[in-house]
Amino acid sequence: MAAEILKGTMPARPARAAASEEAMPAPRGPVPRLSVVIPTFRRPDLLARCLEAVMAQTLAPEAYEVIVVDDGQTEDTREKVESIARAHPQGPRLHYLRPDGTRGPAAARNRGWRAARAPWIAFTDDDTRPERDWLAEAERAIAAAGAEVALRGRVVVPVEGEFTDHAKMTKGLETADFVTANAFVERAALAAVGGFDERFLRAWREDSDLCFMLQQHCGPVGRAPGAVVVHPVREAPWGLSLRQQANVYFDALLYKKHPRRYRAEIRPVPPWRYYAIVASTLAGCGSLLWGAAGPALLLFAFALAAIAGFALERLRDTSRSARHVAEMVLTSAAIPFLSVYWRLAGAWRFRVLFL
To answer: 3-class DSSP state for residue 70?
Structure first.
């Protein structure tokens, strides 16, 4: 079955535009058994690596379709998808969607599965590399499933070179409960819960929310251990952990929707160490303003000791190169303040008592 790129019109580039979600054609040909949905945002080279693996699955080409949702709306992404489609003329149908406006990965996945034709949706991300039998193993697990309305695949994170704090965090995907890097969901169940909550604007907690919603309203979530995707560790810019603190803004939303499960499965207690560092630092500054130098020094010493302990914890079992150690020390001093800020900002935005 020939791969196809859906063509449409957009005012900015009418001659070369990619299809919008409204441009999906009427279904034709046999209905696929699986629809692979891949959201992407301005990472054409990573997307190409992922697509090459998806297009080369051992599953028969007519058994699945591939839907790329370009949330970044870039011409180089469209051109990369077109190139891959031309390189696989006998592969599965390849659909390229370009929704109007940048909405985030949750919304992009919703655009993808709503355009899909198959009864089961396979989700992965543009920075993964599915194994060749990924979909075939998923089908076996689906056939063996009972009441399960979703299945979680297995994520493998190879680490080459320096084992950094970022690599350790990425390695956590191997033990995560349910992640959209490798998940299979019944389309009817997605429709029943309304898909992903589009208020999750980052790739953070939207998968946990979907899992909780499916289990609460539709049925159990099972496993497909044979369905494997590889998630290589990407090179991280210095100080990436500082920008990642903005993710916890959406912890407040997850907590508001699922308070008991959040405390049971995500974070049993608030990050009291962060709050203690922030409170002691602010109190120390206040003491200095009041002329109480002695108490201020004690408060600052406590904050520094807590920061040092945090940095040592992050360095445990990771690289001790000078660059990495410096990054851990400096970012450990800033993370508590950023984390507390974003937590309180999320609590205010979503109107929930959340620490």
So the answer is: strand
Strands 129-130, 93-97: pairing kind: unpaired
Q: How far apart are the first and last CA of the chain?
A: 53
Strand 64-70, strand 93-97: pairing = parallel
Largest Cα–Cα separation, the chain: 80
Class of domain 21-236: alpha beta
- Cβ–Cβ under 8 Å, residues 351 and 257: no
pTM assigned to the model: 0.90
> Could you tell me the two tokens for 93?
């149908």
CATH 3.90.550.10 domain extents, the chain: 21-236
Report the DSSP beta bridge partners of residue 151: 184, 222
Q: How many CB atoms lie within 10 A of CB 8?
A: 17
Write the pLDDT tens digit of every residue in 6-29: 433 222 322 223 333 434 444 567
C-alpha distances in Å from residue 23, one per residue of 5, 9, 14, 164, 204: 11, 9, 14, 44, 29
- The string over 279-309, giving b where at least 16 C-beta atoms fall within 10 Å of a residue's C-beta and e elsewhere, is bbbebbeebeeeeeeeebeebbebbeebbee
Residue 55 has pLDDT above 60, yes or no: yes
Which residue, chain included where needed, has tokens 């851990």? Answer: 328
Residue type, 196: F
Neighbours of 64 (CB within 10 A): 26
